[in-house]
Each structure stands twice: as structure tokens, then as C-alpha cells.
Amino acid sequence: MVGTDNLKRILDQICRDKGIDKTLLIDAIEEAVRSAVRKKYGSRRDIEVQFNEELGEIEVFQYRTVVEEVFDEETEINFEDARKLDPEIELEDDLGEKLENIADLGRIAAQSAKQVIIHRMRDAEREVIYEMFRDREGSIVNGIVQRFERGNMIINLGRTDAVLPRDGQIPKRSFKQGDRIRAYLLEVRQDSRDAQLVLSRTSNEFLIKLFEMEVPEIAEGIVKIMGCSREPGFRAKIAVSSIESDVDPVGACVGMKGSRVQNVVQELQGERIDIVPWSPDPAKYVYNALAPAEVSMVIVDEDNKLLLVVVPDDQLSLAIGRQGQNVRLASRLMSWRIDVKSEQRYANLEDNGYRNLVAVEGIDEGLADRLFAAGISSAAVLAGMDAVEIAAAGRIGEEQADVIRGLAADAPPVELDQSEAEVEELEAGEVEAGEVEAGESSADASSEAVEPAEAEENSSAGEDEETPVDDASPADAESKNVQENTGSDENITEES
């Protein structure tokens, strides 16, 4: 017999502490004892193990077949010996015999039974933990820092332990053993040799859940968080909207004198949080997302999900943020690519010569800005300059300037836009028209010079002929009278 009077009490205590079903624990013990008995008496024996609830003990039975002549003692029993145990037994029947004094199974068998019990108990406990926390996945849990293992933080949640990995910890804050901590339950694993529960304090969902706990309008569904992006411990952006026109989503999240958002900031150890209104229009959305920087113009590329944002020159550093943090968070918030340029650079990009400079390998927009500001208007101009002049204008080394000059010599010529080409064609046409007009004016001048000479010849010829006035034709006289009458009519008109 295996067990003592305390076995039943011990089982009840383990079931209460671990939350394990008593049936599962009894099955584990029966399997462990079965394994130990087979190691002791051989694996070919037909062994059956049962837990006697009334006696509170484990009973082991061995079943053998009744035969006339025994060839295998592990599976067969003589008919006469079987009759002593059961007078009604017949040949070929299976006789169950209870094994006594199996408490002394030996050290190896006992160790094997112990391992089986521990393994089954862990499986049962893991299943209990999974059933307990699977509905809480995606929520915030509270715990106490238990210990540290290779950078990971082990958090005691009461019934079990959870792990907070290194990449799930906010870098600016360090906890000590025994500190209370709040984290987001990221994953609940059913079959895992490591920790079943994985926590996180750096996920976007952690920030969203904190606002749901602090802002009743979000919990009720009046205000919705449309997007979130974080750089844990430094800065975060959330976009909010409201389904009711009389509820300000930003004001609801900020709270009276900033009380609501300050509670979230304290939980995140001073992480700056920008709350911006959401908009379905990408241009207006990026205008809000880049706040507090001002935006002059937004060009939207729907196909490539690209936004070209033009800001005043003095707002460029504010729009980009420290190490690109502001524009990077805005890009993640919108899931769009955002290209921020100053007004001066955008104006430069409209110039073909500037684009020709940027097209040269080794020249970025920053270097192109300096060269263009120094009067270097194209790659062709750059190729014709001295390396010392290029180095001074671009504030680079002479070796780099010499390399850039060589690359600029191989660059394609400046391509004109259609409008610029039309302007040049129009100017060329005006020049040609001017040349033609100049030629016509010179021809007119020469013809005018010829006409006086002809007039003189005609006058001299008239003088030689001396035609009398009285011999004028009647038609000439009549036309003269008409002209006089016309002149008199004009005089009358003027007087009237």
C-alpha cells in the first residue's frame, strides 16, 4: 500500500493552493505509481493503480491469466494457486491480485514517481493559469517586482509569475525588488517551458489602456483613440476623435488643468504626450500631427501614401524634432511617409539648375543648398570651377570637392520644363521678329530716299512741258469741285 492517513489531506491542500482539479492530481499520482511498479516488477506486467477515496490510499493490482501450466510468471498464474485466491475462478480467466508491501519500491522507482508527479502537476497548473488569464490578455495587470534574470524582470501577479522582457521595459526608469508595477499583458502562452505570461510597458496598447482607465469618455466610447505612436520614455503622440459634436476629444483627454494626462505621464515616468485631433483629410491630419510646428503647404500623393510638407524656414527644426523624433512619430501615427522641407529648399527644388546639382552623385540637398546659395546654379557651372572655390562654397574638403567636380562634368545637361522651353521659344521668336522689322524699316528708308529723287525728276519734267491751266479736262474740274464741296461740308460739321 502506498500512502498514509495524511495523503487525502495533502491532496486537498495542494488542490486549494495551486487551483488544480483533484481528479487531475489523482490521475498524476496513479500514473506515477504505475511507472514505479513497472520499474520494480517489470514492464510486461498488467498493472492497475487506483486511489481509494474512503481509505485515502493508493491500491495496486496485478492481473494474470489462469492456466494449467505456467510459462511466464509475469502474465500467467497456476490454476491451483488461483483457486486459493478465488474459489470460483476458471481457466483462461484474468485474476486480479492486490500487491502488498509496495511502499518499498526502491530509490530509483520512487524518484521516477516523483518526476512524473511534478511533471503532471506543472502541466495541470499551466492549464489552470492559461484558463485564468486568457480572457485578460490585452489588459493591464498589477504586480510586485520579484527578481531579475538576465535583464528580464519577474513580476509576481499573485497566483503565478509573469516576465517583463528587457525590450518591454521603459529605459529611463529602473525598478527595485518589491516595487509595485503596472504593465500590459501582451501574451498568454498555453504551451511554454518559459514564462506563460509576457508583459510590456513599451507597447502602444499600454498607453491606450492607460487613457481608457483615466478618461471616462474613452471607456464609454464617446471619444475614440484613432492612432498612437511612441518612443517609450521620451515622447508619444495619440490622435483622438469624438462621435458627439459637443465633446472636445482633446480636452477630454487632457482633463481639468491637465489632471488626466498627468496621471498617464507619471505612470510612464515623464514621457511627453502630444494629443492631436484626428481628421480623415491627410493634409489636415498631418497639420495637426506635426504640431506645434506651423505648416505652410501640404502636397498629397495618394498612390504612394506620401506627404510633402512645406514649413517656414524658422519652423523646420521644430517640425523635424530632435533627431527627427517629431516627424518620425507623426509618420507612424498616420502610417504615411512624410517629407518635410523648408520654403527656401522647396523654392530651390523648383529650379532646374538646383535639381541638376542634386542629381550629381555625392551631392545631397544640404550641400546643394550651400552651393546654390554661393551662385553655383548648375552642374555645368560646378564642373568649370576650381576645387578650392567649390570647397569654400560648400564648406567641404578639397579632395571631396575635386571628386564632385569630376562627377559634375559627367552629369547630363539641365533639362528645361515645358513652360520654360515655351518662354525661350517665345523670346527667340521675338528676337527674329525684331530682326525682320529692322530689315523692313531699312528697306522703307531706302525707298523713301528714292521717292524724293523721282519727285524732283517729275517736277523738272513738268517745268519743261509748261502745261497751261485752261486746258484742264472737264473731269478734273468736276473732281476739284467735289473736293471743294467736301471740304465745305467738313467745315460745317466742325462748326456744328
Q: What amount of the residues lies in strands?
A: 15-25%
Helix-strand category: alpha+beta
Radius of gyration: 51 Å
What's the tally of helices? Answer: 19
Helix content: 40-55%
Stated plainly, the CATH topology of the largest domain is called: GMP Synthetase, Chain A, domain 3
What is the C-level CATH assignment of the largest domain? Alpha Beta
Mean pLDDT value: 78
Net shape: elongated
* Straight-line distance between termini: 151 Å
Q: Got a strand count?
A: 15
How many distinct domains?
4
Q: What does the largest sheet look like?
A: 5 strands, antiparallel
Spatial sequence of strands, sheet with the most strands: 7-6-5-8-9
CATH homologous superfamily placement of the largest domain: K homology (KH) domain
Uncertain ranges: 430-496
CATH architecture of the largest domain: 2-Layer Sandwich
What does this structure look like?
- With 496 residues, the protein is an alpha+beta fold.
- It has 4 domains: 7-129, NusA, N-terminal domain (N Utilization Substance Protein A, Chain:P, domain 4), CATH 3.30.1480; 137-200, Nucleic acid-binding proteins (OB fold (Dihydrolipoamide Acetyltransferase, E2P), Beta Barrel); 205-341, 2-Layer Sandwich (GMP Synthetase, Chain A, domain 3); 351-409.
- The protein is built from 19 helices and 15 strands.
- Strands 7-6-5-8-9 form a 5-stranded antiparallel sheet. Strands 1, 2, 3 and 4 form a 4-stranded mixed sheet that branches. The protein has a 3-stranded mixed sheet with strand order 10-11-12, with helices on both faces.
- Strand 10 (223-231) and strand 11 form a beta hairpin.
- The radius of gyration is 51 Å and the shape is elongated.
- The protein starts with 6 loop residues before the first helix and ends with a helix.
